[in-house]
Amino acid sequence: MDDDGWLSPAQQRAWRHWVALGTALPARLTRQLHEESGLSLADYDVLVALSEAPDARLRVGDLAAAAGWERSRLSHHLRRMGGRDLVAREECADDGRGAWAVLTPTGRDALDRAAPGHVRSVRELVFADLDEAELAVLERVLRGVLERTRG
């Protein structure tokens, strides 16, 4: 690979598609979620993470790390979600410094209502034209970029 300070033409084209996708895909998924369920993509991501956790609860710090968010951003978002009764915040009995984010029954219902439409959109927008071999390549490429990004 040449390191002349510039991307090759093929790298430049791929990079520009990647950057455009980083804006277009979340916007489209957010619009679909909001129109069909009143949730944002951020709401959905938090609800999914909590739904997959033991007892539908995660330490706020662990949830922030899993989401790739700053803890303060997540705290503000959880407060807004709590105002809609989607999540609850509970103090950790064994650690006065920490708190749990907990999926509420209302949050579970919202996720259950939103998931089918969200999955449909993801299939249509991302996976519709991929065969199994292309899907395997996409997964490998994305995993590699993610691993390098996380260090």
* Inertia-based shape: globular
| Sequence stretches where pLDDT stays below 50 over 5 or more residues | none
Q: Any idea what the radius of gyration is?
A: 18 Å
Order of secondary-structure elements: HHEHHEEHH
Describe how the helices and strands are arranged:
Elements: H1 9-37, H2 41-51, E1 57-59, H3 60-67, H4 71-83, E2 87-92, E3 95-103, H5 105-127, H6 132-150
Antiparallel strand pairs: 1-3, 2-3
Could you explain the architecture of this structure?
With 151 residues, the chain is mainly alpha-helical. The chain is 68% helix and 12% strand. The protein has six helices and three strands. It has a three-stranded antiparallel sheet with strand order 1-3-2. Strand 2 (87-92) and strand 3 form a beta hairpin. The two termini are 21 Å apart.
Keywords summarizing the entry:
3 strands, 151 residues, single chain, 6 helices, mainly alpha, globular, 12% strand
Short description:
The protein is mainly alpha-helical. The chain has helices at residues 9-37, 41-51, 60-67, 71-83, 105-127, 132-150, and strands at 57-59, 87-92, 95-103.
